């Protein structure tokens, strides 16, 4: 590995004042091999905050020594690192020192991949000839983050693929959603791929436009566009057992066409089809009604009276973004939401920090690790029910109750002058029982004189606005319905028919989709559903991490199929059923099945069908290498 800082040490000297001490210590170990940097007095103190103090609890004189050591390393020439891949044992020591806490050994191989020290992609034992690969075309439906991850993996293997996307551009949810304030609620350095060029993020939590540009750049870097067909919609697909192919019908600007592929992948995810609540009298409303996911650039809100229905993640981003430029905004709330405070949510990344992330060897990898860990599995123990806990009405365990106290104190501090809002804004259910939300000024925004929070129900829409169940009519110019998505449909809305004429919509009847590892379904050979049932991250983490786990699994399936001369794989029913039973048992111990809890993670029967119950490290291990013994195999 050649290490070369692109500018003089003066740039490093000025930038290093803005460095995170944790990351600098790891840089020193990589460059020198000296493990004293993991020990006192250099060892960081534990900091559980989502955005930790960059000084890491280390005395000022030690900061100076660490920074001076890094500057000195690069003062003359370009040194070679002593350690590039630390291996499992050393990286475990490094992670524990970096965080100031215990890290389980199973995270070592995962994080070596995640930080790029070892390759993640599947590999051939011996690459097949191109004529063999040409017979295994993959059709990917949707061009969001999952499709991009899989496309990169297939491209490295030389497996031919085509992506069809109904919209005019790639990006999936980040192309479709364009409401004001739309952005990530996971730090960019975790919500980004482990591969490819590092992006020069301008914020720790970027807005939608910056993320969409990033996805376009990844696609360009890996030559994905030449495999991408935009404005092309899959309207149906059926498995042909005699051909051992998926026969798909595509709707294009030039009409309908048939497309054959060995493998079919749904990469449309879970949150893609808007679910707009409808209200009596809405046809009479004279203003504009729209779902937040159907926002267009031509919508003008300045000086308008705006209603927002819903208080989920979209509303928490939208309302603070428009409050200062509208005449008024009224939020109709069905359920109060817990929201975690995050210092620096809207802050830009300073010039010095951006320089370090872009240029200082190993710095960005360890910064990424810190973000992965803080938004990863650490929260999961607080979401597990404790049968002996005496207060299940307010929390599911002692730690969860402590989080409740902290989150409640935050709400009270934000709304201290508005007791009327406190009553409406403190939830009655345990923290994290619904999707985890981040506060970006939400509670402060509710205190503004032109903002109203309405907790009474809606009776009907009128000609001029909304009438509440208590008889109060409020006039509006624009009504934004932010009521989520049709989560239960997933791949079933693509009209996919498997063996013996079984349609996926019928297989997943009663809003109850199931799949082995969230990916494969019995009687649907060579079909993979990315971000399918019970694979959505709910306790933190990143959809992009899930997409890489799943693309690795799909790739290893294809490598083994091609090398062994297998035409089709169909997951065994007993394997599928056993996995679903384990998922359900695990969920029975988790917060999302708490009595009285309502969340879009559950279907109308109360089963959790969307969220993943596993730690991220567990799901990574489950999906790392395919075991085709779990499938019925059809030889070529």
Task: Describe, in plain words, how this protein is organized in 3D.
The structure is a single chain. The chain has helices at 9-15, 21-32, 60-73, 87-99, 107-114, 130-133, 145-157, 173-176, 208-221, 313-322, 351-359, 363-374, 398-414, 419-425, 442-446, 504-507, 543-564, 573-588, 616-624, and strands spanning 138-141, 161-164, 228-229, 233-240, 245-252, 255-261, 263-266, 288-291, 305-309, 328-332, 339-341, 437-439, 451-454, 458-461, 465-468, 473-475, 478-481, 496-497, 527-529, 566-571, 631-635. 31% of the residues lie in helices and 14% in strands. The protein is globular. The chain has a 5-stranded parallel sheet with strand order 3-2-1-7-19, with helices on one face. The protein has a 5-stranded parallel sheet with strand order 8-17-9-10-13, covered by helices on one side. The protein has a 4-stranded mixed sheet with strand order 6-5-4-18, with no helix packed on it. Strand 5 (245-252) and strand 6 form a beta hairpin. The chain is built from 19 helices and 21 strands. The longest helix is centred in the C-terminal third of the chain and has 22 residues, at 543-564. The chain is of the alpha/beta class and 636 residues long.
Question: Which secondary structure elements does this structure contain, and how are they paired or packed?
Answer:
Blueprint (H helix, E strand, L loop, with lengths): L8 H7 L5 H12 L27 H14 L13 H13 L7 H8 L15 H4 L4 E4 L3 H13 L3 E4 L8 H4 L31 H14 L6 E2 L3 E8 L4 E8 L2 E7 L1 E4 L21 E4 L13 E5 L3 H10 L5 E5 L6 E3 L9 H9 L3 H12 L23 H17 L4 H7 L11 E3 L2 H5 L4 E4 L3 E4 L3 E4 L4 E3 L2 E4 L14 E2 L6 H4 L19 E3 L13 H22 L1 E6 L1 H16 L27 H9 L6 E5 L1
Parallel strand pairs: 1-2, 1-7, 2-3, 4-18, 7-19, 8-17, 9-10, 9-17, 10-13, 11-12
Antiparallel strand pairs: 4-5, 5-6, 14-15, 15-16, 20-21
Helix pairs in contact: 1-11, 2-3, 2-4, 2-12, 4-5, 7-17, 17-19
